[in-house]
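Quick one:
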Amino acid sequence: MSVVPEHIFREYDIRGIADKELTDENVYLIGLAYGNWLARRGVTEAALGGDARLSTPRIKAAAARGLNDAGINVTDIGLSSTPAFYWSLYRFNAGGGMMVTGSHNPSEFNGLKVAYGRGTLWGGDIKEIYEIIAGGGAVKADSPGRTTLHGINGEFIDMLVSKIKLGARKPKIVCDSGNGTGGLYAPEFLRRIGCDVTELYSEPDGRFPNHHPDPTKRENLPKLIETVKAVGADFGVGFDGDSDRIGVVDNNGEVIWGDRLMALFWSEILPAHPGAVAICEVKSSMALPEAVEKLGGRPIWWCAGHSLVKAKMREEKALFSGEVSGHMFFADEYFGYDDAFYAAGRLARIISNTDRTLSELMTEIPLYPSTIETRYDCPEELKFEVVERVKREALEQKLETITVDGVRIIYKDGWGLVRASNTQPVLVARCEGRTKKALDEITADMKRRLLDAGSPDFEWGY
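Output:
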């Protein structure tokens, strides 16, 4: 019987408490099983990176041993961001790889993002790694692989610089790396393309002594907002712990969440690619598809989750997509993976080619009254049934719905969403209305539907 707990194998990654669930023995077995998974597909070379968390060097070493014992040669790129790790798959033409990162989670957590080819594994493929362990199929190869150290951070920055050319205006930017990996790249990259950069918390420190590195939470942004105002910056950017998610505040210190930021990026992309498909995740504001249609694009709705969005982009040959959570995927001039540094460079390019401020540009994208993404506890055995009951009632009432991920009910002046988290015993809900009155009516109706479906009681977040 395997000692590796099954629950750490999530929908998009492998994640758990570093010192209890990601022990050396468990990580070694994960590396060995994943190495077997790769070997069955003819892969012999893999990349390995790791973030700034205190547990990362230990976990990386155990993962490398497991991969080597499965016969896989490992190129260890050292302390790195997730975008640099993704690029290493191209740089070394690796057939797979592992990124050791706890992403935006608290410091006691860590995890493993797992790649095959140029994409990240999700769902059944991640579960298959667990099944190899549980079934005793994780075996050593006759000839072990080797691990080679090859840092690429300098090369990665050079590549980023080659991708962005600014216009006449040189943006003034505040960069808050939150003591994650962003400080290794963002300040140098942005300065080299011509920006004036003020740095906050650039030194990697896995204790995260200044604030938690999650720029999608308003409570982590006060210093960034304060500094943008103090220095008169054009905008501020924050990075999560492994730098695959971006947070943005405008020149007035107002937060621009991911869905409205996507609408701004589409304003640059769609004029060059009329009629392009725009993948919109179900949590997005209605301002996003409205902006896409106005620009001549074709919005389609899709599931939340970075791996799922990237897979859908490949299927649709989409040029760009993103998530409310700050993952931005550019495939028009880039590789299609989520890279917060490149996203910051694209925003700098937009600002460099206009005399308008970012706050003025954003006035063209409506900011409708909405709740935040409200997450609340719901037992694992109940959460999917609650969503199904809400969906069934809406369909019986012949309401317009979007059902690619949970159910998004379309009201006359807004929408309400409920979906089950893929990684936790949690329900996720959000509502938006064209007016505050419409929002109040929608939140009341959605709460009634959820409680009638057996949901635990909750309060909307705003």
